[in-house]
Amino acid sequence: MERWEEHVRRVVPYTPGEQPKQEHIIKLNTNENPYPPAPGVAAALGMADAELLRLYPDPLVSELVHEIGSFYGVPDEQVFVGVGSDDVLAMIFMTFFNSDKPILFPDITYSFYDVWARMLRIPFRQIPLDGNFRLCARDYETVNGGIVFPNPNAPTGELLPLSDVEAVAAANPDVIVVVDEAYIDFGGVSALPLVERYKNVIVVQTFSKSRSMAGSRIGYAIGSKKAIRYLNDVKYSFNSYTMDRITIALGVAAIRDRAYFEETVGKIIRTRENTKKELATLGFEFGDSKANFIFARHPKVSGPALFAALRKAGIYVRHFKEPARINDYLRITVGTDEQMQALVNFVRDYLKREGPVV
Ligand SMILES: *Cc1c(COP(=O)(O)O)cnc(C)c1O
Fold first, then answer.
1. In this structure, which of 15, 85, 248, 285 has its CB flanked by the most CB atoms within 10 Å?
2. Can you say whether residue 133 is alpha, beta or left, with left for phi > 0 and alpha for psi between -120 and 50 degrees?
3. Which pLDDT value is given to residue 14?
4. How is 66-114 classified by DSSP, letter by letter?
5. What span, in angstroms and rounded, lies between the C-alpha atoms of 74 and 76?
6. Angle of CA points 76, 80, 86, to nearest 5°
């Protein structure tokens, strides 16, 4: 090791899902939306004026902030935007998690939380989910420097009832409680109404899943005016121009089209429920996912083996090696009906070929 390396901020980075280069694969591994963004997004892209790229974008991102505020019926001062919810969450960690006490999050959850905590040197404690992969609100009634969890949880898809989210918020008035609602639009009940009553609650959402815009990187947080002010202070101390002009215009076009959003989300929910039926018929076990993915295992098949067989057949799903108790599970993104049928057909044949005779 060279001397200068002693002063490097060493980190173990987050591992995103694979983005294979080849075409004609069925990509069910990163919870992207199978449908295109709202038609207005392509139109806005067509109208984008290269000449305007000379100028810095609006550091306040006022137009997009305002559209998001109107969509949810909250004042602009309660909305913060960033480059995907990953950026928003990182800013939240930096702004609010500055206690000597550990922040809390589940043991099986979004695998970026511990990466940010380590990078920012925030002490943390992972609270085990129960045997059914459910989060138990009572476990969060303990000394802590802040709380963060996805709802529905990732990669399990389990939805925590709003009353339990409220119980966590009510039990922890002295710290910020972050509800990461990346998947809330696929059948969950949002904690947004809690923001009014609990100044310590911040809700984070994204355009990446339910609005089909993972490629554009748009995320947002809704919280009390005071919390959003603190968040903006940190953002402007770090990078004032996080969102570019074109992305802002595309985001505005996307959120204005409520009808298209509801239609595509509705299709994904229907496909998810049909896929659950098919997978159950094949003997899979899974919880009642309220997200755009299903976290499933087959009692007679190893997770890594099925993952590899699917991948060889050009069907990409996600497998997590850690912790050990989820090693036999696959997280399968809900795509189109055709994609899910292809997956089901492959698995049916696979079980006939490789599985023990049931
Ligand atoms: C996808 C996801 C995010 C990040 O989404 P981006 O907005 O694309 O950065 C955050 N949290 C959870 C739980 C997710 O699954």
1. 85
2. left
3. 87
4. HHHHHHHT--GGGEEEESHHHHHHHHHHHHH---SSPEEEESSS-TTHH
5. 7
6. 155
| pLDDT at residue 22, as a whole number | 84
All structural domains of the chain: 3-36+259-354 (3.90.1150.10), 39-257 (3.40.640.10)
Sign of the CA dihedral running 272, 275, 279, 281? positive
Structure tokens at 83: 């480059």
Q: At what angle do helices 62-72 and 245-256 cross, to 10 degrees?
A: 20
Which residue among 33, 88, 205, 209 has the greatest number of ligand 1 atoms within 8 angstroms of its CB, and so is best to mutate? Answer: 209
Which residues have any ligand 1 atom within 6 Å of their CB? 31, 84-86, 110, 150, 154, 180, 182, 206, 208, 214, 219
Output the CA torsion 89→90→93→94 (10° steps): -140
Residue nearest to atom 2 of ligand 1 (CA): 182
Kindly report, residue by residue over 289-303, the tens digit of the pLDDT.
999 999 999 999 999
Tell me how far apart the alpha carbons of residues 296 and 300 are, in angstroms, rounded to a whole number.
12
Kindly give the pairing relationship between strand 285-286 and strand 293-297. Answer: antiparallel
Query: What's the pLDDT tens digit per position in 64-114?
Result: 999 999 999 999 999 999 999 999 999 999 999 999 999 999 999 999 999
Q: Other C-beta atoms within 10 Å of 11: how many?
A: 11
Q: How far is the centre of ligand 1, averaged over its atoms, from the C-alpha of 143 (Å)?
A: 27
